[in-house]
Amino acid sequence: PYGGRAYLIAARQAGAAPAPESDIRAGKDWIENAWLRVAVDPATGLLSLTDKATGLTRSGLHRFEDGGDAGDLYNYCPPREDVLITQPAAPPEVTVSEVNAVRAALTVRQTLMLPARLTDDRRARAGETVPCAITSTITLESGVRYVAIHTTVANAAEDHRLRVVFPTGIAAEAVDAEGTFMVNRRPVGMEHRANGWPGWAEDPSPTQPQRSFVSASDGLHGMAIMNRGLPEYEAMMQDDGTTALALTLLRCVGWLSRDDFPSRRGHAGPPLPTPEAQMAGEWAFDYAIMPHAGTWQTDDALVMRAAESFANPVRALPTDLHPGTLPAAWSFIRLEPPSLRLSAVKRAEDGQGIIIRWYNPTKDDVIAELATAVPFGGAALVSLNERATHDLTDGQATPRQQWRVPTPASGIITLRLSQPSPKRLTD
Question: How many CB atoms within 10 Å of residue 193?
Answer without folding.
Answer: 10
